[in-house]
């Protein structure tokens, strides 16, 4: 609606045809639609920052927020139901909502939910992981008749080499605004970070484009290694920020962060403490 609003208001016609990709008429837009637009109704899941949400969120009606991240900058015009709990995976919260309503997820759905918890908690090694996450994943695995160990191995052993650097960078990508600074942090969880690090130049090339287009103070890529239980960071930005935030000595746009597995609980809090 925003794309055509200005154009429509400049002209005298009262209605306009809407065409599909084959230029066939599929609807009509009138000035009435601009005055009283029908708002989409959305539930925000696993995020509550405007920069991480879908385009056009300002024109939508937010009904609920279900999340496990820090509270950020989402604003609503009306009171909404908010469920934010300190667990390792939003799927743990969603599975709890199933239980509270006396609902049983189907076997495929339970398998997907168990996989989400295993992925989010990095096979229960992330500092964000709680006993509740583990218990819920075990329950879902029983419903789905799957092994959590086998599920985790399959998830994190999935081949990444056939994907482009850009696709990998945006697989799990988030933007943040902290203390007047804009930054983006992408994360790739794997079992062989040294082989991923060999593609550093490819990643830096894509990250440079992101940094320029988004006017970011820093762009970070976390190569989180399940076996090493740490994260190899590739970054574009001030070396001193990395040195102070993580107490490491960076070299050639990289640094290894031992025991760092979580963007939410370890990386973002460290940068937030530095930037205030």
Question: Would you write up a description of this structure?
Answer:
By secondary structure, the protein is an alpha/beta fold. The chain contains 11 helices and 10 strands. The chain has helices at 2-10, 31-35, 90-100, 107-120, 131-144, 148-156, 165-169, 193-197, 200-214, 239-246, 263-275; strands at 15-19, 25-30, 41-45, 61-67, 81-84, 173-178, 181-190, 218-225, 230-236, 254-258. The strands form 3 sheets. It has a 5-stranded mixed beta sheet with strand order 6-7-8-9-10, sandwiched between helices. A 3-stranded parallel beta sheet has the order 3-4-5. A two-stranded antiparallel sheet has the order 1-2. Helix 3 packs antiparallel against helix 4 (107-120). The longest helix is centred in the C-terminal third of the chain and has 15 residues, at 200-214. The chain is globular, with a radius of gyration of 22 Å.
Brief overview:
This protein is α/β, with parallel strands linked by helices and 276 residues long.
| Low-pLDDT sequence parts | none
Q: Quaternary state, please?
A: single chain
Q: Count of DSSP E strands?
A: 10
Look at the structure and give the mean pLDDT. 91
User: Could you state the order of secondary-structure elements as H and E?
Assistant: HEEHEEEHHHHHEEHHEEHEH
Query: Which percent band covers the strand fraction?
Result: 15-25%
Radius of gyration, CA atoms, in whole angstroms: 22 Å
**Alpha-beta content class:** alpha/beta
Helix content: 25-40%
**How far apart lie the N and C ends?**
38 Å
Strand order of the largest sheet: 6-7-8-9-10
Biggest beta-sheet profile: 5 strands, mixed
> Globular, elongated, flat, extended or rod-shaped: what is the shape?
globular
| Count of discrete alpha- or pi-helical segments spanning 4 or more residues | 11
């Amino acid at each position: 609606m925003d794309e055509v609003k200005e154009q429509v208001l400049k002209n005298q016609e009262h209605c306009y045809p809407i065409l599909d990709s084959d230029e066939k008429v599929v609807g009509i837009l009138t000035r009435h639609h601009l005055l009283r637009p029908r708002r989409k109704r959305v539930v925000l899941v696993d995020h509550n920052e405007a920069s991480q949400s879908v385009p056009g969120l300002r024109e939508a009606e937010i009904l609920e927020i279900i999340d496990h991240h820090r509270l950020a900058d989402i604003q609503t015009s009306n009171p909404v139901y908010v469920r934010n709990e300190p667990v390792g995976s939003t799927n743990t919260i969603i599975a709890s909502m199933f239980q509270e309503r006396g609902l049983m997820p189907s076997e495929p759905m339970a398998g997907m939910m168990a996989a989400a918890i295993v992925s989010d908690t990095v096979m229960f090694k992330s500092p964000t992981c709680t006993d509740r996450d583990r218990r819920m994943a075990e329950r879902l695995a029983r419903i789905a008749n799957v092994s959590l160990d086998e599920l985790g191995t399959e998830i994190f052993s999935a081949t990444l080499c056939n994907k482009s650097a850009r696709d990998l960078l945006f697989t799990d990508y988030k933007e943040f605004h902290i203390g007047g600074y804009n930054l983006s942090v992408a994360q790739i969880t794997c079992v062989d970070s040294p082989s991923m690090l060999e593609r550093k130049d490819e990643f830096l090339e894509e990250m440079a484009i992101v940094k320029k287009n988004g006017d970011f103070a820093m762009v970070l890529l976390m190569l989180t290694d399940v076996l090493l239980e740490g994260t190899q960071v590739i970054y574009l930005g001030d070396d001193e920020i990395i040195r102070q935030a993580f107490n490491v000595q960076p070299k050639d746009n990289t640094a290894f962060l031992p025991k760092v597995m979580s963007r939410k609980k370890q990386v973002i809090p460290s940068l937030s403490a530095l930037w205030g």
